[in-house]
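Risk register update: the risk of archive-format incompatibility is retired. Evidence:
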Amino acid sequence: MIAEVLYGLLAPLMVVAVSWSVVRRAYRANPAGLMPVLLVGMVLKLMFLAAYAAVMLRVLHLRPIPFVATFTASFIVLHNIEALLMRRLFTSAC
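Archived output:
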């Protein structure tokens, strides 16, 4: 059960950390050019997370219910935190 929880938290945490770093750097460099960066990031996140979940469930044979529950909950919470950080970034520049 510990492995499922750790692996369920690992990918969303990595994705949000990398995404936030890229968004912050792109916004500071060119605020008007942020939308293409966000769109490409969304596609890359989708592809990575789908492949990650498939590998965890099919290759490592993790128990699906604890893994998917942790993966989903951490994804939602961490992406909401990232959205709040973006809102702070965008309003602090005004």
